[in-house]
Amino acid sequence: MRLREKVLERRVVYAGNYLTTHLYVVRLPDGTTATRDIVRPPDAVAVVPLDDAGNIYLVRQHRPALGRVLYELPAGVIDPGESPVRTARRECAEETGMRPKRLKKLCVAYHATGFSTGCIHIFLARGLTAVKRPAPTAGEFVEPVRLSFHRAYRMALTNRIVDAQSLIGLLWTKRLLDQGAT
Questions:
Q1: What are phi and psi of 178, to 5 degrees?
Q2: pLDDT band for position 136 (50/70/90)?
Q3: Is the domain of 66 the same as that of 151?
Q4: CB-based contacts of 182, cutoff 8 Å, min separation 6
Q5: Could you list the residue range(s) of the whole structural domain that residue 156 is in?
Q6: Is beta strand 44-49 parallel, antiparallel or unpaired with respect to 119-130?
Q7: Which residue, 3, 20, 95, 103, could crosslink 74 as a Cys pair with Cβ 3.0–4.6 Å?
Q8: Do 140 and 167 reside in the same domain of the chain?
Q9: End-to-end CA separation in angstroms for the chain
């Protein structure tokens, strides 16, 4: 069965500081047309900073879209011209005060494949060294939190950690820990 849709027209319907939204007119496999809303956020990284004692470094941050404070992996947008690895090192140090010696790419995940192009590169960070956290970016308020990996994993399993990138990062890391492959 042919599943691909052909884009006939696309136009920007919103361009903000963080994302752009396009409206696509597409031809469906059966020859009819439909519209698609496509959101284009910048690509990003998330980091699972795991120390030699089995502790993980998360951040607590208020998320206005949900109206509450969440526990999350340190994460951030890939700046223009910056590699995902460089962004992962920068974000880990900025948000947790820990600089990784080693990064292992766990996966690339897409936020919401039905309407968004945004992807997030998820890394495991090892060989952590404490560094002075730089002054936060204007308007960014995060609180670093250190807890055992097993506690964070339990928080994920009991729906106390709810964002997709953190859940994915924790599950990948748990698999590696169980295999002795970190």
A1: -65, -30
A2: confident
A3: yes
A4: 50, 104, 124, 126, 173, 176
A5: 44-179
A6: parallel
A7: 95
A8: yes
A9: 42
Q: Are residues 22 and 72 in the same domain?
A: no
The count of structural domains within the chain is 2
For residue 52, give the 3-state DSSP assignment: coil
Is 107 part of any domain? Answer: yes
Which phi-psi region, left, alpha or beta, contains residue 165 (left: φ > 0; alpha: ψ -120 to 50)?
alpha
Across all residues in the chain, what is the average pLDDT?
95
Residues 67 and 108 in one domain: yes
**Residues 72, 91, 95, 140: which is the catalytic one?**
140
Beta bridge partners of 68: 63
For residue 123, the model assigns a pLDDT of: 98
CB count within 10 Å of CB 4 equals 8
Give yes or no: 140 in active site.
yes
Contacts of residue 135, Cβ cutoff 8 Å, sequence gap at least 6: none
Q: Say which CATH number the domain at 142 has.
A: 3.90.79.10
- Domain assignment of residue 89, yes or no: yes
Could you tell me if 72 and 61 are in contact, meaning their C-beta atoms sit under 8 angstroms apart?
A: yes
Let me know: does 140 contact 85? Beta carbons within 8 Å. Answer: no
